[in-house]
């Protein structure tokens, strides 16, 4: 096994604590003490019971919230606000409905005055990758939920972030669309070599997508388990049914379910 | 064929043609009753002339008494003052809806003015601006601008925060956020606010012209009152209704054209 150099870590979360309404009568401690590091090209899944603080951790990483204590270090910079290098995909649909699919994908590049020729090229590339080439001139109103999420993912990737943050991106989709999108995400992660942090509370999604799963306690969040998905042997499966035939899959799911139950509020 | 069980009629869709016929029917009943009431002498014909008399009066006004220039005077007043009010209210409302500091600064002022009835300013407006066009335009402006500011601000505040955050994580700065997300997102709603406030502008127009004008639809109606020409007054009301409807249709058409992606 090769030793991993320390500078292999693209992101470091150090002693993160987040208290909302800190100076009001009823402060809410959402995140108590969370530390972890993320390597380049890794697909990290954040898992935990409902309301435990997963979204908060992700939003602090994105720079949309500031930590109450601790810090986020991305590359060699302390995160103090949102930036192009940390793209975010939300659970709710965020397509700009006044722009066509192609213009939505182009949006971020236009903000940064990327040359038109390169812009067009990249739009075409990502239209193909997410399978929306036939819909380049359609408006979001005309798209299904899964297609809207594909627009959001393509728009973020076309902006070439170092880090792709996703907060339950497939949570609003029906089961079939959801596993289609999961497979798409695996293939995008392979082809674009983007580092991804994804929040979910769907156990099978976590096992299929994650190279590594970080499991949070109930609120206020601390890490109660942080492990690579061992039975996958550092491989990623392209198709969802293939993972189900792995001998250890059931055990892993059972283990996660036990953790989930131990942290359940209900 | 299965005979459908009789169901509750609540919110049951009806045929489009049926809906159009029903819409026409109420007008037929209205004009029919009105005509009948005056023909059969149920009402004093001098005070309530029938619709046929009113339309005859309207024809005479338009073709023999130069009423068209009054109509254009009124339209001009509405359009100019409404454009002025929009030019102030739209940018200000968007900025107030986007930046809490500006909202805190302007809103107490704007809210207070909304509760002052615009016509109460007529006496001072007349003293300040004399009898020209200015006091009329000023009245319409005051009557509309504060409502429009508030509506635009509220619509701007309703833009989903995820849209703004998405743009931020794509690297948009403050200017770009306003220009490429807030404005395009709120524009269709601003059009709806404008459509509603245009109707209000017509209301103030008639007040302005009745109180302090020698030209325009309202002034014609006040002249007619002096000579007990009830038919001409009603012709004026009818014209205002028709113009209001036309402006409304125009805005609806424009909305569909400009914001086709919403339909
Ligand atoms: N802006 C805010 N102001 C006050 N409290 C907040 C805010 N955002 C989140 N919280 C609180 O922090 C806690 C954690 O919320 P968070 O959304 O991070 O949980 P989550 O794990 O993502 O939940 P879910 O599974 O429902 O998405 C919750 O109790 C929530 O009410
Ligand atoms: Mg959440």
How are the secondary structure elements laid out?
The complex is a heterodimer of chains A (266) and B (263).
Chain A lengths: L8 E12 L7 E12 L3 E5 L6 H9 L6 E6 L2 E2 L7 E4 L11 H11 L4 H14 L15 H14 L4 E5 L7 H18 L2 E6 L2 H7 L2 E5 L4 E8 L11 H5 L4 H14 L4
Chain B lengths: L15 H24 L11 H14 L2 H32 L1 H15 L7 H8 L4 H24 L3 H9 L4 H39 L4 H10 L3 H29 L5
Helix pairs in contact in B: 2-10, 3-4, 3-6, 3-8, 3-9, 4-6, 5-6, 6-8, 8-9, 8-10, 9-10
The site of adenosine-5'-triphosphate (ATP) has 14 residues of chain A, from strand 2 and helix 1.
Plain-language structure description:
The complex is a heterodimer of chains A (266) and B (263). Chain A is of the alpha/beta class and 266 residues long. Chain A folds into 2 domains: 1-85 and 166-266, P-loop containing nucleotide triphosphate hydrolases (Rossmann fold, 3-Layer(aba) Sandwich), CATH 3.40.50.300; 89-160, no CATH class. Chain A is 35% helix and 24% strand. Chain A has 8 helices and 10 strands. Chain A has helices at residues 54-62, 101-111, 116-129, 145-158, 175-192, 203-209, 240-244, 249-262, and strands at 9-20, 28-39, 43-47, 69-74, 77-78, 86-89, 163-167, 195-200, 212-216, 221-228. Chain A has a 10-stranded mixed beta sheet with strand order 5-4-1-2-10-9-3-8-7-6, with helices on both faces. Chain B has 263 residues and is mostly helical. Chain B folds into 2 domains: 16-48; 51-262, MetI-like (MetI-like fold, Orthogonal Bundle), CATH 1.10.3720. The longest helix of chain B is centred in the last third of the chain and has 39 residues, at 174-212. In chain B, helix 3 (67-98) runs parallel beside helix 6, helix 3 (67-98) packs antiparallel against helix 8 and helix 9 (217-226) runs antiparallel to helix 10 (230-258). The mean pLDDT of chain B is 92. The structure holds adenosine-5'-triphosphate and magnesium ion.
